[in-house]
Amino acid sequence: MKGGLSKRPRIGLEANSYRALHREILARDGWRCQQCGSLSELEVHHIWHRSQQGEDSDHNLVTLCVNCHRAIHG
C-alpha cells in the first residue's frame, strides 16, 4: 500500500464510454473552466490522478482550460 491507497487493478472505460463521460462533464460544468471561467481549450481533469488510482467517474472529474490544467500538473 503506497500513500494510503490500496493497489487494485485500474479498470478503464471503453473509448466511446470515456468520450461520452467527458462530454457529460463538460456539459455539467457549463462548458467553462472551473478555475478561471475560460470557454476555450477545455480539457477534463482527474482530481485524483489515474496514477493515484483515481476513477473515471463524474465525482473525480472537472473541466479545466489547458492553461489551468498545465498549472495543476506543474
Task: Walk me through the structure.
- The protein has a domain of 42 residues.
- The longest helix is centred in the N-terminal third of the chain and has 14 residues.
- With 74 residues, it is α+β, with helices and mostly antiparallel strands.
- The protein has a two-stranded antiparallel sheet.
- Helices cover 30% and strands 14% of the residues.
- The two termini are 26 Å apart.
Could you describe the largest sheet, including whether it forms a barrel?
Answer: 2 strands, antiparallel
Q: Which ranges are low-confidence, i.e. pLDDT below 50, for 5 or more consecutive residues? A: none
Kindly report the average pLDDT value: 86
Task: State the end-to-end CA separation.
Answer: 26 Å
Oligomer: single chain
The number of distinct helices, counting runs of at least 4 residues, comes to: 2
Strand content: 5-15%
Compute the gyration radius: what is it?
Answer: 13 Å
Strand numbers in spatial order across the main sheet: 1-2
Structural class: alpha+beta
State the share of residues found in helices, binned by percent.
25-40%
Can you tell me the overall shape? globular
What's a quick, concise take on this entry?
The chain is of the alpha+beta class and 74 residues long. It is built from 2 helices and 2 strands, in the order H-E-E-H.
Key features?
2 strands; 74 residues; alpha+beta
Topology of helices and strands:
Layout: H1 15-28, E1 42-46, E2 61-65, H2 66-73
Antiparallel strand pairs: 1-2
